[in-house]
Design brief:
19% strand, alpha+beta, Glutaredoxin, three-stranded antiparallel β-sheet
């Protein structure tokens, strides 16, 4: 006699589906996507179009500290930092010291958060973005080179082109703006230490936020 397999209850199925969808959008990454950017080594050069319609090469900023910020305007974790003004204030603080701050959007066309140059420029204006430039990476090639998996995800490059920090922006992996006040900002700390000629105490941290919406 054949044994009939029982289907899981509808409620259980719904919960499993909901968990899967949540994991697809909000992930904590523990590895890079075959990245060629490695801590302690020179990062690969790249050229991307900016929201200003111009081409920007990483090598254009040789001899300067550079921050790369992976972003997605629709991500709740990105909203946490922009709606509160925290990201813009940090951008102003660091660019005033001569740091180059490049926002990178690797969202593929048709995917959540993808922007055209005009859309990115409008977002910059409406959100008082204070970065050096916003760069568009629709093919995801640069994102994959750096192993960017989340938004926001941060990379700090020293004046000699060496990657000195990679990972989450801070140690509070949540989308709650209330957590910002008590968080340790790893990007600020890395820049402060490097500018003082000291080794970076926390050179990497687990990235958190929404998954980068690469092309399938």
């Amino acid at each position: 006699m054949k044994t009939k397999l029982q289907k899981p209850p509808m409620k259980t199925t719904s919960l499993l589906l909901g968990a899967a969808l949540l994991a697809a959008s909000f992930v904590f990454s523990s590895h890079a996507n075959a990245a060629s950017a490695t801590l302690g080594q020179s990062v690969p050069d790249f050229t991307l179009q900016g929201a200003d319609g111009k081409s920007h090469a990483l090598s254009d900023y040789k001899g300067k500290f550079v921050v790369l910020e992976w972003t997605n305007p629709q991500c709740p974790f990105v909203h946490k930092f922009y709606d509160s003004g925290t990201m813009q204030n940090l951008q102003k603080e660091e660019t005033a010291k001569g740091v180059v701050w490049l926002r990178v959007n690797s969202g593929a066309p048709g995917h959540e958060g993808s922007q055209t140059a005009d859309e990115a420029a409008a977002y910059e204006k409406s959100n008082n973005v204070a970065s050096t430039a916003t760069l568009l990476d629709p093919t995801g090639s640069v994102g994959h080179e750096f192993g960017a998996t989340n938004t926001p995800q941060m990379f700090v490059i020293a004046k000699d082109g060496t990657l000195i920090y990679a990972g989450g922006i801070d140690n509070k992996p949540s989308a709650d703006p209330a957590d910002i006040a008590t968080a340790k900002n790893f990007v600020r700390a890395a820049l402060d230490e490097a500018m003082a000629g000291k080794p970076v105490t926390t050179a990497s941290a687990r990235p958190y936020g929404c998954s980068v919406k690469y092309a399938e």
